[in-house]
Structures are given as C-alpha cells and as structure tokens.
Amino acid sequence: MTERNSLPPAQVRTRFAPSPTGFIHLGNIRSALYPWAFARSQGGVFILRIEDTDLERSTQAAVDVILESMHWLGMDPDEGPYYQMQRMPRYKEVLAQLQAAGHVYPCYMSVAELDALREKQLAAKQKPRYDGTWRPEPGKVLPPIPPGVQPVLRFKNPHSGVVAWDDKVKGRIEIRNEELDDLVVARPDGTPTYNFCVVVDDIDMRITHVIRGDDHVNNTPRQINIFRALGHEPPIYAHLPTVLNERGEKMSKRNGAKPVTQYRDEGYLPDAIINYLARLGWSHGDDEIFTREQFLQWFDLEHLSRSAAQFDEAKLRWVNAQHLKAMADEALAELVAEQLAKRGIAPADLADGRLPRICALFKDRCDTTVALADWAFRFYADVIPAESDRAQHVIEAIEPALEDLVQALAACAWNKEAIGAAFKQVLARHGLKMPQLAMPVRVLTMGVAHTPSVDAVLELLGREKVLARLKNR
Fold first, then answer.
1. Considering the entire predicted model, what is its pTM?
2. Quick one: which of 420, 243, 425 has its CA closest to 316?
3. Taking every annotated instance into account, which residue ranges of this chain make up the domain Glutamyl/glutaminyl-tRNA synthetase class Ib catalytic (predicted)?
4. How many domains does the chain have?
C-alpha cells in the first residue's frame, strides 16, 4: 500500500460553514477570513457551506446577509453556497451504509430515561454520558424494543485507543476513546445531526484543511472517528482562539457585536477590515498595516496565535484611517459618492468632477468615508453655521475686511494662488493676522471654524458659492 506521505499533495480545499441563524459579525467573519486566505495563498479552493439544519432558527434573510457581507469584503467563495438541507438524501444514504456495516445502531432510550441516567451519574460524581444500553455487542442481549418508540441512531464509538491530531494552532491533541460516548447521528424523525453531516460534507467536498473556531475542538475527536469508519482520513485541523469583545467576553450577537454590513454603512473600507481582522490572531513580524495582496502573499498557518484576541474598535478606526489615506482619490470618491447619495446628493450634482479633489484635501483628517462625506456634503448643500461660531468669529470689527475680501474674490482669478494673494492684500490693508479673517470666512462658507488651508477650500467650493455665502452674513 502506498504511504500517504508519498502521494502528490492534494489541492488545498477549505470551507466556511456558518449557520444562518442571525446576522454575521466580525468574529464570524474572522473564522471565514483564514480559510479564505489560506486557499488563496496556496492556489486552492474556498467553499461556502450553509449549515441550515436548525429549521426553527435558520432564515433566508440570514443567508442573504452572509452572502452580502462576504461579497462586500471581497471574499466570494469559489464553490457554493451548498445547503445542508438540500443534501438530506445523501446523508441518509451514508447513514444506511454505516448501519449496514455495523457502525451505527438504533437506540430506544427515551429522553426521560436519559435524564434519569444523567442525574444518577452526576449524583455519583461521574461524567454524564450515554451508558450503551442499546449498543449491540457479541453475546449481549438487548432489551425488548418498546412499542411505538422511534429510535435515534447512535454511532458506535470505539471503546479503546486514542483519537489524536496535530492541530495547526493548538499542537498535539489526544482524547481517549473511553471518554467519548456513542454520539447520536440521527434524530427520531431520521434527520441526521450536525457532527455527522459535517463529516459527510467534508468528505464529499474533498476538504483538506478545516480552519474553524476552537469551540469545535470537542467535536473533532467524534468527527475523526466517523471519518475513519467511512474509510477516510480526516483533514488537517486548525482551531482558532476566540475573538473577545472590548469587555473581554466572547464576541457574539448577545454581547453587542454589530453586523458586518453595519461597518460598511459606517464608512469602513473592506481592505481595512481584512487588515484588522487578519491581525486578530495572526501576524507577519511587526507589520500592522498591509494590503490585501500582501496579506494573501504572506498568510500561513504557522503564525496563527494560540491566544484569544480582543476586538478594539478604536484600533479598527485607526487601521481604517491608514487605508483611507493610502487610497486613490478617484476610488475614494466613488465610495464617498455612495454616502452622499444617502443624503440626497444625486450623481448629476457630482458631475463637475470636484469630488476626488475634495477627498484628497480632507482624507488626512478622516477615519471613515462617512466622516469624509460629512466634509464633502458642505460643498454640495447649503450650510448653516452654528450660532456660537458665528457669534465668536463673525464680529462687527471684521465686517470691513470681509466686505473688502468679497470684492477682491469677485475680481481675482479663481485658483489657489490668486485666492491666497487676495487674502494677503486684505490682511495687509486692514492690519490683520490670517486667523482673524480666515476663521470667519470658514464659518460663513463651510459652517465650521476649522478646515484645511482656506485658499484650497475656497477654490474647490467655487466662486459663486463662496461669494453667496460670504454675503449671507
């Protein structure tokens, strides 16, 4: 027989297998990010599998949000989505094969009997577990089948030996088979259970690497035994530590996590989310800011962290700000235009081509496209200065200089240099310093007292709007 290690390496095939029982948050997406990145870095295949067997809680709306979130982040799968509910005939076919081979047996123990057994074991300070009452053994006489009871199907777990695997994150893990009871693999109505479906899916989809949260570690030895009963070696496992929220709790919907799509609406960039999440459990030296391309070039399983990572929204905003500053102005303008559209600024209003230059001027002081749109909006819609700013800066003493500036701006060439020269002439004539004139001009034209260079702002605002706003005082 050919040694497994001498076979040519199989193409890497990874999967993300969410349950569509609510919105998807950043902790969930981190569990998708690493299998996606590993498949991309190895020239492999990334598969999306929807584990929708929880009929009471699974919804199409939740599936749609998963697909929308992954598409926004640029993490579209190569295959799928596959839906477990559509694969029920396949699961039942494999169950029948296992039962015929003696690996699966019917168990007629009722819920009440299981509860009583559990209470008895707990009272005796034993680990609660199924005691094998209905497990067929050579020479064993099984109890009489109770009338009218639909059995569950249980997997005949080996009684001896060790289940072991070399986890790419946690290292060597060994579980004694005697610690595992016989797992229910099909409910009384014949519906197969999670741990069984996962194994059939991973075999059929030829998954080579299972990269998932460490809340699945306890499932892994059971799944490995089912793999081997089906004549297959298990994939390589990497169990990722939990992502904690800012209070140190497991990130979850219950603990205040936000949907991934909310970050899109709040003006975060997909590449910044990828960058930030990548560092929540993986590192490449001391690199903090990197592109998607760099991440996919560098990513490996060897540098995954064994420690839980804590989410920090302030750090995410900082990472987003770095990506926003580095982004090409034209591409950034497209995203800001989407934010402006939500505020009633139509594409026709942006046809003059100023938006990329506005983005270039303001992006260094913004950490999201929403913040950048707040600035850009002032160029396309009327502004109303706060009364406090008006009272502080637009004072009677400055009126003559403002009137003089209006005349100078009406007559000068409309570019940054000429506007700057007009300011200097007025300042010299009235014996003023730049802030004494620039602050009231900013308040009247932009509605705020602090902006980037006032000549650059006015040039972009346009002569007509500047003069109208300066006169409206």
1. 0.91
2. 243
3. 11-318
4. 1
Q: Is residue 79 part of a domain?
A: no
In a domain, 292, yes or no: no
What one-letter code names the amino acid at 34?
Y
Cα dist from 319 to 16, 314, 443, whole Å: 25, 9, 31
Using alpha carbons, select from 151, 288, 167, 277 the residue that is nearest to residue 221: 167
In this structure, are residues 423 and 466 in contact, taking their beta carbons and an 8 Å threshold? no
If pLDDT is split at 50, 70 and 90, which confidence band does 7 have?
low
Which residues are bridge partners to 167 per DSSP?
Answer: 171
Q: Is 253 a catalytic residue?
A: yes
Quick: pLDDT tens for 416-466: 999 999 999 999 999 999 999 999 999 999 999 999 999 999 999 999 999
Q: Are strands 309-310 and 171-176 parallel, antiparallel or unpaired?
A: unpaired
DSSP character for 16? Answer: E
Please report, for the domain that includes residue 401, its CATH number. 1.10.10.350
Distance CA 408, CA 423 (A): 8
Q: Per-residue DSSP letters for 221-260?
A: HHHHHHHHHTT----EEEEEPPEE-TTSSBP-TTTTPPBH
For the residues 302-322, what does the mean pLDDT come to? 95
Q: What residues are designated binding site for ATP?
A: 253
438 phi, psi to nearest 5 deg: -65, -40
- Give the DSSP H/E element, type plus range, for residue 357: helix 355-362
134-144: b (≥16 Cβ within 10 Å) or e: bbeeeeeeeee
Instruction: Retrieve residue 285's tokens.
Output: 């030296």
Q: Give the tokens for residue 129.
A: 């577990």
Establish if 305 belongs to a structural domain. Answer: no
Containing 211, the helix (H) or strand (E) segment is strand 209-213
Residue 431 structure tokens: 């014996």
Helix 454-461, helix 434-446: angle, nearest 10: 30
- Which domain range does residue 429 map to? 387-471
Whether the per-residue pLDDT at 406 is higher than 70: the answer is yes
Rounded Cα distance, 363 and 472, in Å = 29
Q: Is residue 408 part of a domain?
A: yes
CB 418 within 8 A of CB 410: no
Q: Is 5 helix (H, G, I), strand (E, B) or coil?
A: helix
- pLDDT by residue (tens digit) across 150-196? 999 999 999 999 999 999 999 999 999 999 999 999 999 999 999 99
- Which of 92, 170, 253, 416 is labelled catalytic? 253
Q: Which of 80-89, 118-127, 437-446 has the lowest mean pLDDT?
A: 118-127
- What's the pLDDT score for residue 8? 59
